[in-house]
């Protein structure tokens, strides 16, 4: 099983820290999780682009509720009794066997989002094998707007 968590990147230092909660617009619930969606994935055995069998952990519905620079931290846990030669865990719930941290990426506000890119060849390969991966075959870019058009649209909405 793999668990994913969010790390906020400080652009000045490129250091990262936990990013768990952000302020909410709902006074009854002043805080909300920054990383939404299913945060745990089970293994899918499939063939990669080279035709070799591999183990994939697919996260299809993650979203981040705040714009900025972030990284994702993936932690691989083994659930169940320890394999021969593996130390037993004192904690219930599994043993951490590996971690991976993504490179920094940018999250945009809906207004500044540049548009969707085409799905990767790996995503298409996994979908052809029956793994539930949303596929986009075309690039959808947001139309470019000049500053005067943006201002006019904002004024018209009020």
How are the secondary structure elements laid out?
Layout (H helix, E strand, L loop, with lengths): L1 E8 L6 E3 L2 E3 L7 E3 L1 E2 L3 E2 L1 E5 L5 E5 L5 E2 L3 E11 L16 E7 L3 E3 L7 E2 L4 H8 L11 E2 L5 H11 L1
Antiparallel strand pairs: 1-2, 1-6, 1-10, 3-4, 5-9, 7-8, 10-11, 10-12, 13-14
Brief synopsis:
By secondary structure, the protein is mainly beta. 12% of the residues lie in helices and 37% in strands. The chain has a domain of 103 residues: Velvet domain (Immunoglobulin-like).
Descriptive account of the structure:
With 158 residues, the chain is mainly β. It has a domain at 2-82 and 92-113: Velvet domain (Immunoglobulin-like, Sandwich). It is 12% helix and 37% strand. It is built from two helices and 14 strands; from the N terminus they run βββββββββββββαβα. The strands form five sheets. Strands 1, 2, 6, 10, 11 and 12 form a six-stranded antiparallel β-sheet that branches. Strand 1 (2-9) and strand 2 form a beta hairpin. The longest helix has 11 residues, at 147-157. It is globular. 5% of the residues are buried. Residues 146-158 have low confidence and may be disordered. Residues 1-136 form the Velvet domain. It comes from Testicularia cyperi. Its main location: nucleus. This is Velvet domain-containing protein.
Provide the succession of SSEs: EEEEEEEEEEEEEHEH
Which ranges are low-confidence, i.e. pLDDT below 50, for 5 or more consecutive residues? 146-158
Total helices: the number is 2
CATH architecture descriptor text of the domain at 2-82 and 92-113:
Sandwich
Largest β-sheet summary: 6 strands, antiparallel
Estimated share of beta-strand residues:
35-45%
At the fourth level of CATH, the homologous superfamily of the domain at 2-82 and 92-113 is: Velvet domain
Provide mean pLDDT, rounded. Answer: 82
Question: Could you name the CATH class of the domain at 2-82 and 92-113?
Answer: Mainly Beta
Structural class based on helices, strands and sheet pairing = mainly beta
User: Based on CA inertia axes, which overall geometry fits?
Assistant: globular
| Helical proportion, percent range | 10-25%
Q: What Rg is obtained from the alpha carbons, in whole angstroms?
A: 20 Å
Distance between the termini: 48 Å
CATH fold node name of the domain at 2-82 and 92-113: Immunoglobulin-like
Number of strands: 14
């Amino acid at each position: 099983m793999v668990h994913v968590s969010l790390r906020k990147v400080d652009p000045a230092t490129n250091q990262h820290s936990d990013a768990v909660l952000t302020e909410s617009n709902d006074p009854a619930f002043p805080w909300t999780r920054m990383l939404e969606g299913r945060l745990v994935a089970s293994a899918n055995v499939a063939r990669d682009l080279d035709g070799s069998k591999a183990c994939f952990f697919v996260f299809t519905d993650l979203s981040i509720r705040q714009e900025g620079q972030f990284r994702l931290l993936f932690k691989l846990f083994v659930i169940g009794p320890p394999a021969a030669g593996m130390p037993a865990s004192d904690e219930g719930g599994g043993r951490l066997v590996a971690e991976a941290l993504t490179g920094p990426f940018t999250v945009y506000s809906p207004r500044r989002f540049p548009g969707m890119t085409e799905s990767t060849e790996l995503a298409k390969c996994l979908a052809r094998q029956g793994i539930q991966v949303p596929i986009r075959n075309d690039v959808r870019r947001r139309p470019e707007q000049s500053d005067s058009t943006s201002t006019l649209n904002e004024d018209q909405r009020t």
